[in-house]
Amino acid sequence: MAYDPGLADRVGSLLLRMTTFTEKKMFGGVAYMVNGKMCSGVVKSDLVLRLGSEGAEAALTQRHTRPMDFTGKPMKSMIYVEPVGTDSEADLERWLRLAVDFAQQAPVSPKRRR
Q1: How far apart (Å, rounded) are the C-alpha atoms in residues 38 and 25?
Q2: How far apart are CA 31 and CA 12, in angstroms?
Q3: How many CB atoms lie within 10 A of CB 42?
Q4: Is the pLDDT assigned to residue 1 strictly greater than 70?
Q5: How far apart are CA 13 and CA 107, in angstroms?
Q6: Strand order in the sheet with 46-50
Q7: What is the pLDDT of residue 28?
Q8: Cα torsion 39, 42, 43, 45: sign
Q9: What's the confidence (pLDDT) of residue 109?
Q10: Helix 89-105 to helix 5-18 angle, to the nearest 10 degrees?
Q11: Whose CA is closest to 19, among 106, 105, 104?
Q12: pLDDT in tens, 13-70
């Protein structure tokens, strides 16, 4: 199982009510892009959120969270939320609202040269 399709469906449904987004395969799971920037995603059974450095640091003080770390080095702007932290629709919506707000306000990253 690359990612939990039930959680992905719940995330997509809630995001539809909040904003316009696109879906993209990333991190061995699915990512949701807002304004061309990653907002959230699902990897295995975890919710992934992009919150920026300050937002991620604050979120990591809450239960059921941990730094996103799949390369051996934690990503300062992203976190995982364990399944128990997204069981209720209210909790999932609260987490997604933080990520959507960040994505809508985050500056556009300059294009990298290849």
Answers
A1: 11
A2: 10
A3: 25
A4: no
A5: 26
A6: 22-26, 29-34, 37-43, 46-50, 75-81, 65-68
A7: 84
A8: positive
A9: 67
A10: 60
A11: 104
A12: 999 999 999 999 987 899 999 998 999 999 999 999 999 999 999 999 999 999 998 7
